[in-house]
């Protein structure tokens, strides 16, 4: 650029031309800058993924060399009742937890997007659980959900007698009852929607103010404003975040299930795919079998990415600018 | 024009701690088109926002069609607003945009759509009903915004610089259409602009606003012929009115009115003559030719600048020595200290 700046009024034109058709030198520069990322992508993601793909068709216990197994692992997976439970648990979790997380994040974003006293503190508080290290977060909930002295059940027992709630029911047995344990994992996941919350907060604040003033002049109710303006304008962001959250939900069940419930209570109430893969691979040393289960997770992720891709294309058509 | 369409009674408004409107008194008759004219930051838009209820007043009352609406929320005031940015909903079609105000007021969908179509036909955008705002040009968006304001029957239309985002040709066209529309509807309108030509062409009356205070309210002719202050005199008219000390060096021709010691005279560029045998000597700095007219920028002896408009055919050359003359009949006299009009 320093050579071009002295050549007078034609310099910007040549600069534009260079940016449009990069010459060999700047192409080399771009390649050089991209290299670290590419090396990481290939070495840390693509190669392991390919190895996993290959291992899925072998018997491998991390000690003896892998032995070719053909489709044995896949057929075994289909017939494995524990795998089926893990898959169902994973899908049920995604179907229940993702909408709840989105709803919570959207609600908080709409509540806290304005300048108001305490709004900044409240935003920080909404984000904070996401920043807590996962293991610490899991251990914290282990205490919170303790059926006897945990604060959650102590609150639920307020106003009741003999250890029952005010309605005369037994408080949830969070970590020992299968349904309650699944609910506990979902409850835990609700408070880590910080990233979704921040993106929605930014999306809401980016919406034009005059559109809302217009609605105020037309006497639209809060519900009308939400239904006819806010929701449709935020729909693209919401849809993409929901898919992203669905993909992430394959993974963020792992630590809670591992630390808090250890996949239990029986029968495998909180064994999700991620935990299933971990236990199969590293506890039972059936590495090839675990790789086959990982393959199923990859297929689920791929399906979600396809949905996301279609959404992006659809919304690009929707907003031609 | 009978009865009050809109009355502002000593209205003040503030953003945070800064007062932007100072006890504004303004009355708009029913069916009148009032243009609020002023430079950027004069508080023009704030006047509209206070009327619409988007901005609270810190003092005074707002009355629309005889109702005191000062403490009512925007939706209850029965006003329509056209925003400078048009504020169209990007996800709705033109028809849905226009019908929005009706549908949120629980008008049946079929009726709302019919009235939307009628409003679109009024402003000439009926062919766009199925498009989305992203597919429209600036002028088309402007029409849709107008149609959306027309679809109800509000007591007052508020237009916030609706023409400022259009190119010149379209602005001139829409200006005429807007005036015709007002004449057809007979609606009370308050139109905000910083464009003096727009104000002079459109308005029944003009309110000139400066730093949150009203300088003058009057018909376009009154604003042009008898500007109440130096500010109004110089803000309306392009190039701006010449302003010189009454004591010289330029002394108008004819019988002078009785003048106090500290006075200023003002005259428009078209009132100045250059071919008179008498008048104050001046040098030509530059000449701008705009078709048939030439604007001659002069410096009087003593350094005061003067602009004169002359026919292009009779323009002087740059650097030429000329004599500038003006008649008392074409001269405005202002108090030098207060800037207020003294005579005639």
What are the salient characteristics of this protein?
heterodimer; A: 321 residues; mainly alpha; MetI-like fold; flat; disordered N terminus; B: 344 residues; alpha+beta; Rossmann fold; six-stranded mixed beta sheet; 8 helices; 18 strands
Q: N-to-C SSE series of chain A? A: HHHEEHHHHHHHHHHHH
Instruction: Please bin the fraction of helical residues of chain B.
Output: 10-25%
**What is the tally of beta strands of chain A?**
2
Average pLDDT number of chain B = 90
Please, could you describe this protein's structure?
The complex is a heterodimer of chains A (321) and B (344). Chain A is mainly alpha-helical. Chain A has two domains: 1-55, no CATH class; 70-318, MetI-like fold (Orthogonal Bundle), CATH 1.10.3720. In chain A, 71% of the residues lie in helices and 1% in strands. Chain A has 15 helices and two strands. Chain A has a two-stranded antiparallel sheet. The longest helix of chain A is centred in the first third of the chain and has 32 residues, at 24-55. The radius of gyration of chain A is 26 Å and the shape is flat. Chain A starts with a helix and ends with a helix. Chain B is of the alpha+beta class. The two termini of chain B are 29 Å apart. The A-B interface holds A 208, 210-211, 213-221, 224, 228-229, 232-233, 235, 318-321 and B 52-54, 73-77, 79-81, 83, 85, 87, 89-92, 100-101, 104-105, 132, 134-135.
Helices and strands in order, then pairings?
The complex is a heterodimer of chains A (321) and B (344).
Chain A: H1 2-5, H2 11-20, H3 24-55, E1 58-59, E2 67-68, H4 72-79, H5 81-112, H6 119-131, H7 134-144, H8 151-156, H9 178-190, H10 194-205, H11 209-217, H12 222-249, H13 254-261, H14 273-283, H15 287-318
Antiparallel strand pairs in A: 1-2
Helix pairs in contact in A: 3-15, 4-15, 5-9, 5-10, 5-12, 6-10, 7-13, 10-12, 12-15, 14-15
Chain B: E1 4-15, E2 18-29, E3 33-37, H1 44-52, E4 59-64, E5 67-68, E6 79-82, H2 94-103, H3 109-123, H4 138-150, E7 156-160, H5 168-185, E8 189-193, H6 196-202, E9 205-210, E10 213-218, H7 220-225, H8 230-235, E11 242-245, E12 263-267, E13 280-290, E14 293-300, E15 305-311, E16 321-324, E17 332-335, E18 341-343
Parallel strand pairs in B: 3-8, 3-9, 6-7, 7-8
Antiparallel strand pairs in B: 1-2, 1-4, 4-5, 9-10, 11-12, 12-17, 13-14, 13-16, 14-15, 17-18
Helix pairs in contact in B: 2-3, 2-4, 3-4
């Amino acid at each position: 650029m320093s050579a071009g700046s002295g050549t007078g009024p034609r310099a910007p034109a040549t600069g534009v031309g260079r940016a449009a058709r990069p010459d060999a030198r700047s192409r080399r520069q771009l390649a050089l800058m991209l290299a670290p990322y590419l090396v990481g992508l290939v070495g840390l993601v693509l190669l392991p993924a390919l190895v996993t793909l290959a291992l899925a068709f072998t018997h491998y216990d991390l000690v003896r060399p892998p032995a070719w197994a053909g489709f044995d692992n896949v057929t075994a997976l289909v017939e494995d009742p524990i795998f089926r439970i893990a898959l169902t648990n994973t899908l049920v979790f995604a179907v229940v937890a993702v909408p709840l997380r989105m709803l919570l994040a959207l609600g908080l974003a709409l509540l806290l997007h304005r300048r108001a006293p305490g709004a900044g503190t409240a935003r920080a508080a909404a984000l904070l659980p996401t920043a807590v290290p996962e293991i610490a977060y899991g251990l914290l909930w282990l205490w919170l959900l303790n059926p006897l002295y945990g604060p959650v059940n102590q609150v639920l027992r307020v106003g009741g007698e003999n250890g029952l709630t005010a309605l005369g029911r037994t408080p949830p047995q969070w970590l020992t009852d299968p349904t309650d344990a699944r609910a506990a994992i979902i409850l835990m996941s609700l408070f880590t929607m910080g990233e979704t919350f921040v993106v929605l907060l930014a999306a809401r604040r980016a919406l034009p103010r005059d559109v809302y003033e217009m609605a105020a002049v037309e006497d639209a109710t809060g519900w009308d404003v939400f239904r006819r303006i806010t929701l449709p304008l935020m729909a693209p962001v919401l849809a993409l975040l929901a898919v992203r959250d669905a993909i992430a939900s394959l993974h963020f069940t792992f630590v809670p299930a591992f630390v808090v419930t250890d996949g239990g209570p029986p029968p495998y109430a909180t064994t999700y795919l991620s935990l299933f893969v971990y236990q199969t691979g590293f506890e039972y040393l059936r590495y090839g079998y675990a790789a086959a289960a990982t393959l199923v997770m990859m297929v689920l992720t791929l399906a979600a990415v396809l949905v996301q891709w279609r959404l992006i294309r659809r919304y690009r058509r929707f907003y031609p600018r | 024009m009978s009865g009050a369409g809109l009355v502002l009674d000593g209205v003040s408004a503030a953003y945070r701690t800064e007062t932007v409107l100072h006890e504004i008194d303004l009355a708009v008759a029913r069916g009148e088109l009032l243009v609020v004219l002023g430079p950027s930051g004069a508080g023009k838009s704030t006047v509209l926002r206070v009327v619409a209820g988007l901005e609270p007043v810190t003092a005074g009352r707002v009355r629309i069609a005889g109702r005191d609406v000062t403490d009512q929320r925007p939706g209850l005031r029965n006003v329509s607003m056209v925003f400078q940015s048009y504020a169209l909903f990007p996800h709705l079609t033109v028809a849905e945009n226009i019908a929005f105000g009706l549908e949120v007021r629980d008008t049946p969908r079929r009726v709302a759509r019919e009235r939307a179509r009628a409003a679109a036909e009024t402003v000439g955008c009926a062919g766009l009903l199925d498009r989305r705002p992203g597919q429209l040009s600036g002028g088309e968006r402007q029409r849709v915004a107008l149609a959306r304001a027309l679809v109800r029957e509000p007591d007052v239309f508020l237009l916030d610089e609706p023409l400022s985002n259009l190119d010149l040709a379209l602005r001139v066209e829409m200006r005429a259409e807007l005036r015709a529309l007002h004449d057809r509807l007979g609606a009370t309108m308050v139109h905000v602009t910083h464009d003096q030509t727009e104000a002079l062409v459109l308005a029944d009356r003009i309110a000139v606003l400066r730093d949150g205070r009203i300088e003058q309210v009057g018909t376009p002719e009154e604003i042009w012929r008898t500007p109440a202050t130096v500010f109004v005199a110089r803000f309306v008219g392009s190039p701006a009115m010449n302003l010189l000390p009454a004591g010289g060096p330029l002394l108008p021709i004819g019988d002078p009115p009785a003048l106090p010691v500290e006075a200023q005279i003002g005259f428009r560029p078209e009132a100045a003559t250059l071919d008179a045998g008498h008048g104050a000597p001046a040098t030509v700095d530059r000449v701008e030719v705009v078709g048939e007219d030439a604007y001659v920028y002069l410096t009087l002896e003593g350094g005061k600048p003067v602009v004169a408009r002359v026919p292009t055919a009779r323009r002087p050359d740059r650097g030429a020595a000329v004599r500038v003359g003006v008649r008392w009949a074409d001269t405005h006299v202002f108090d030098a200290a207060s800037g207020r009009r003294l005579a005639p």
